[in-house]
Amino acid sequence: MFNRLKDGISKSMTTMNVNSNINLETNKLKLMIENTRRAIEELVKEMGWAAYRAMKEPDTDLSLLNNYVKNIDEKKQEITRLTERIQELEAERQLVLGNLGNEPGKCSQCGEVNPENAVFCRKCGNKLAET
Predict the structure, then answer these.
(1) What are the φ and ψ backbone dihedral angles of 94, each rounded to 5 degrees?
(2) d(Cα 58, Cα 54) in Å, to the nearest integer?
(3) What confidence score (pLDDT) does residue 58 get?
(4) pTM for the whole structure
């Protein structure tokens, strides 16, 4: 009984640790995404004013507009990369936390830990996964 309690506490601590680390990293990435979106909005405004000036003053260098487009595209790629990293972290969370529950004899329905050779859960009667 003491070992089950000890295992339960250990798994709970691992779950909390994994969740807090991944949540912290995810929140940092979300903040970076939001800051990058704001930077894009600012670049779009500046590009709009540059385009306006270019239309008003015929000798304006239009290559400046290309630089804005390039910078905006780079920032959009950064958002994609950050979003992919968030998805990787979520997959990592599922992998780590999913493996915590994969112990022999553990019921997927109620969580009861049964003898390793059990076919059905002694608590709820659910058919146990074959090991």
Answers:
(1) -60, -40
(2) 6
(3) 77
(4) 0.66
